[in-house]
């Protein structure tokens, strides 16, 4: 009878995946099992947090790559073509700059999982409320006023 009981207790984990039918049968190992369950829960939380962080990072990196590309375009294509003697080139550059500024505003409003990636601690609200109006908004007016006061030698 003892041999049969021992054989049943050894074959149960193989057949059912359970080490015992009742918690009392594994009483000496119970604290370790509970500790492992808590550790597994912590690791699952860490894994979810890492997955979300990876998604936020990928979203941010995509926006940052495009921002760098916009800066390169202006450095290579636009900056060398600006001349005060050609008003048409100034108008073209201004149009491209307005379009780029609106795109930058949209890039800064990038979202991942319903949260604005570049919003700082206020992830529910867009950091740039009106990307299309950036070129005509109060910030642009303040900058234009400041630039208008510059003269040769003080800028």
The Cα radius of gyration reads 32 Å
Low-confidence regions: none
> How far is the first residue's CA from the last residue's CA?
99 Å
Q: How many helix segments? A: 4
Mean pLDDT score: 84
Described by strand count, sense and barrel closure, the largest sheet is: 2 strands, antiparallel
SS elements, strand count: 2
Element-level helix/strand string: HHHEEH
Spatial order of strands in the largest sheet: 1-2
Strand content: under 5%
Give the overall shape: rod-shaped
> Percentage of helical residues?
55-70%
What structural class should be given to the helix and strand makeup?
Answer: mainly alpha
Q: Key terms for this structure?
A:
single chain; 155 residues; mainly alpha; two-stranded antiparallel ribbon; 4 helices; 63% helix; 3% strand
Structure description:
The chain is mainly α and 155 residues long. It is 63% helix and 3% strand. The protein is built from 4 helices and 2 strands. It has a two-stranded antiparallel ribbon. Strand 1 and strand 2 form a beta hairpin. The model has no long low-confidence stretch (mean pLDDT 84).
In short:
It contains 4 helices and 2 strands. It has helices at 2-16, 30-78, 87-108, 138-148, and strands at 111-112, 115-116.
List the helices and strands and how they pair.
Blueprint: H1 2-16, H2 30-78, H3 87-108, E1 111-112, E2 115-116, H4 138-148
Antiparallel strand pairs: 1-2
Helix pairs in contact: 2-3
């Amino acid at each position: 009878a003892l041999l049969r009981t021992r054989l049943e207790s050894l074959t149960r984990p193989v057949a059912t995946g359970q080490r015992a039918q009742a918690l009392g049968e594994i009483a000496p190992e119970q604290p370790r099992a509970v500790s492992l369950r808590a550790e597994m829960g912590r690791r699952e939380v860490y894994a979810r947090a890492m997955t979300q962080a990876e998604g936020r990072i990928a979203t941010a990196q995509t926006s940052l790559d495009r921002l760098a590309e916009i800066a390169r375009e202006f450095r290579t294509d636009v900056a060398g073509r600006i001349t005060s003697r050609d008003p048409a080139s100034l108008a073209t550059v201004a149009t491209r700059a307005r379009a780029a500024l609106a795109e930058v505003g949209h890039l800064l409003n990038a979202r991942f999982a319903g949260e604005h990636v570049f919003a700082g601690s206020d992830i529910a609200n867009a950091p740039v409320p009106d990307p299309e109006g950036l070129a005509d908004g109060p910030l642009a007016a303040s900058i234009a006023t400041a630039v208008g006061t510059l003269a040769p030698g003080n800028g």
